[in-house]
């Protein structure tokens, strides 16, 4: 697409959309939202960039290899966070019982493992959306 | 909110959902069907919000718009009209 | 003919669904089967157990963490399936005869 107005408007709006997505991910344990919705919003901002500026420039921003790495990292990160409980001598995916400091309720860094797990899952959902879009839009030779 | 107002809004939104669901079956153009899906998910997000479930509302709206975008991406490749 | 059969079937199914709905408890009424001691336990103890203000996040990622783990795996499986169907790998290119 080569529409000038569309390109400038998307360039103006996209940073705020990405900020909103990251805000929803980071505040998943304080306010409505969470990993899945925040990840989808972050992924949609990248998809909108690729739609308006072309797939090549989208690949320049984030390469396919990095997407694959994030994809695998998100799934492994969840398991690694679960292993914290096992290392501390309790069961898998234990939060408070494993002695993780919970912090003061209402602060950003509170809730123990919840914030860390939300971050991993949010990144994974965002990369899933982008990877799906790229796989569907790729030109067939 | 006043419970009567909530009831009226619920009836209006659910009626709109039925209208959209019937409209999808009559539309021949795939692009219109995808856009109607987006309207459906936004409407049902409002219903979740009225039932005081903002988590579900955010997820529903984001996922619906995401699916609509992906479908439009596919439609731009396979063409709008399918007989 | 098939059209009339479909309409009759649709009306019958609609009647059954409406009958089932009329048996449901009212929305938000306190004596539904869902409002049992489990919900009370979560409402009382979620803040102390997890330190998260958003109770939905506390349930999804702490109390029911296994569910979310499997959900993440479902996303991963979906991506693998899409790659299997749509992506053409670079390996073995040009070896076909």
Polypeptide structure, described:
The complex is a heterotrimer of chains A (141), B (83) and C (97). By secondary structure, chain A is an all-alpha fold. Chain A has one domain (4-137). Chain A has helices at 4-26, 35-53, 55-61, 64-87, 113-137. In chain A, helix 4 runs antiparallel to helix 5 (113-137). The longest helix of chain A is centred in the last third of the chain and has 25 residues, at 113-137. The two termini of chain A are 21 Å apart. The model of chain A has no long low-confidence stretch (mean pLDDT 87). Chain B is mostly helical. In chain B, 84% of the residues lie in helices and 0% in strands. Chain B is built from three helices and no strands. The longest helix of chain B has 25 residues, at 54-78. Chain C has one domain (2-86). Chain C is mainly alpha-helical and 97 residues long. Chain C has helices spanning 2-23, 37-50, 55-63, 65-86. At the A-B interface, helix 2 and helix 5 of A face helix 3 of B.
Question: Keywords for this structure?
Answer:
heterotrimer, B: 83 residues, mainly alpha, 3 helices, 84% helix, elongated, C: 97 residues, flat
Set out the fold topology.
The complex is a heterotrimer of chains A (141), B (83) and C (97).
Chain A: H1 4-26, H2 35-53, H3 55-61, H4 64-87, H5 113-137
Chain B: H1 3-26, H2 30-50, H3 54-78
Helix pairs in contact in B: 1-2, 2-3
Chain C: H1 2-23, H2 37-50, H3 55-63, H4 65-86
